[in-house]
Amino acid sequence: MTLGLAAASAMMVACNQKDSTPTAASPATETTTAANPDIVYVNSDSLLANYEYFKDVRSRLQKKAEQKEKDLRTQAESFQKEVQRFQQNAPTMTQQQAQATEQRLMQKQQQLQALQQSSGNELMTEESEEMNKIYDRVEEYLKQLSTEQGYKMVLTYQRGNSAILYGDSTLDVTKEVVDALNKTYESEKAEADKKKEAEKKK
To answer: N or C, fewer C-beta in 10 Å, the chain?
Structure first.
């Protein structure tokens, strides 16, 4: 998942900071800067691999896709049996009966194809919506974290697809982000479970 942050701009900012003339700083200033870097990054691969909300969403969508595939396969097999019966009975049918059955089967085939396409589109739309929700959750927390820690920019790192070729491990806040997101999600799940139990008792 791409977190949509301007990595190239961040690298330019970092370069500008390196090239600027250094000024004398007190030990206290150096300590503050080291403890609170302006730029940090999140490993998006690790984020998705460890974020419980994403894992639950992926599992739910996968089950839904498998069920839709199973339903479509059942309907396709039923259709194939109808075609076979028609082929077996065709010699004994009148021309009018054969034409009517053939037309009905063609319409059914078109309906199955349309159903298959609509099911695929529905899953793609739902997946896109869920990824947007994940993006919103991560972005909301990163805004909060940046305000608290004084970060000027949070970059995203993904192996093989990133503008960050190297980043010091002390700038990696992935674990902190994942832990906070999972803590929030656990609270949300617990609250949702309580509501379900309350509704059952009514």
So the answer is: C
